Amino acid sequence: MFFQKEIETMPRKELERLQLERLRHQVDYCARNVPFYAKRLAEAGVTAEKIKTLSDVKYIPLTTKADIRDNYPYGLFAVPMKQIVRIHASSGTTGKPTVVGYTRNDLDNWSDCVARLIRAVGVDDGDIAQVSFGYGLFTGALGLHYGLEKVGCAVIPVSSGNTEKQAMLLKDFGTTVLISTPSYAMYMSEVAKGMGITRDELKLRIGLFGSEGCTDALRDKIEQGFGLFSTDNYGMSELMGPGVSGECHLRCGLHVNEDHFLPEIIDPETGEPRERGESGELVVTTLTKEGIPLLRYRTKDLTRLNYEPCACGRTFARMDKVRGRSDDMLKIRGVNVFPSQIESVIAAINGIAPHYELILTRQNYTDYLEVRVELTDASLLENYAALDGLRQTVVAKLQTVLGIKAKVTLAAPSSLKRYEGKAKRIIDKRNETPD
Amino acid sequence: MAIKQVSIFVENKPGTLVSITDAIGAAGVDIRAMSIADTQDFGILRLIVSDAEKTKQAVREIGCVVSITEVVAVAVSDRPGALNDVMHVLSENGVNIEYMYAFLTSRGHNAYVVLRVADNDKAAEILASKGVKLVSEEDIANL
Fold it and tell me: Could A378 and B66 be called an inter-chain contact, meaning their C-beta atoms sit closer than 8 Å?
């Protein structure tokens, strides 16, 4: 199940030769067309000629999100607006959004990349695909949309929101492929169930979930709820959007589209390259982008790269599911905690829903973590001991995984906020509460 | 002889109880007795009502976790020492009480005591054999 089999299964030697050639071209292209890079590269003394092997990429200075923001809106564009045919921007949670532009070739390459991950799980032109990502500046919806069309699916551009209608369409339109964030898929399955829609009435067979991390435990719950098989895909608007990497049907890592992206792993603290196979922050150099090429872009996502060929036949490096963004990592009483760890614990416990909220507070210079979960098992109302036992179980399991003790609060079902896009489950009040 | 008790999970925050009593009121159900105990964060509201199934339905519709369990209810005459007699019967027969609560009505000369025990049938049998008046589902509906 390939979209561009020759490229996706290219022998590594050949692939690396292609990458080197493209890398050198991209460096030269940036130096000639982006004043920001011309200056950076000159300062670092890097030219295309100096890059002899792929590992020489380490001499190129890193690019950060702040660099994109500092050049808001079009400062890093490498082509005149005449050649730009699409503009996207990432949700700017802090300050200005980061703006990206695409040439016609960029859009074509993008939809190729997305089409690969769509085909890799067996979706084909007979499928009916419901895109429940929000359409707009966000790259998720249109990225998948164009890839799905390229594969030949019948695309339903429903966008996010109006969840009851989403559930109705799933059933009435005979949707076979669902595209959404994992948290929204979870919510949609609850709503569908509440409307009396059973799994048997749905034709759903595949879920393409992305735009936020998803633990295996949450994935299992979604798959059970809808009776489908799902894969994870990865990307970010700065690099292109979804399609940087994606799982195949074997689900043993996300294949990076290495003909378009050169991935590296660095130490997030020092910025130094890490050995092959070690985990750290993912850094990506775009190899074919024309609109806004990026050299060694720091993704802030923590993962690991595996260069062993996959049993599916693809030779592209596989990245582990993103363990968390270095930005998302919480330091609680000096301990590093990833929300994904908490999610994996909660989704695996029976009697509570796989939704949660983390509340961080500080009292007397000490951090406190409160985890709010929803009770679903009515049989525990028999007595307090049973309810409290459930609470204690959650406390104990969290402590095993996190290494710190959290306060666990049971909340009523459906009382925690649901998300139609990326979930925001963390409420950090540590800087609000005066000591 | 056991009667139905409705147990509802309630979060310890303003507005939770009123949403439940609103729902029960709208369903046209009479609340005969209630008990609520809490921990710091949550409580369990226990109700004896004129229609347990209807209550469960109404409360579930507003998104609560709710269950129906069976409990034993006895009528105790409204005089000093009457409850003590019942307690003696249970104690002497080794019946352990997990929790209990009581209520009065405007009619009659009885107080009613709701008992949660491990084995309802056994407790009912013991109580009946000692002449304690058990309350049926029908009695509750007609109170």
Answer: yes
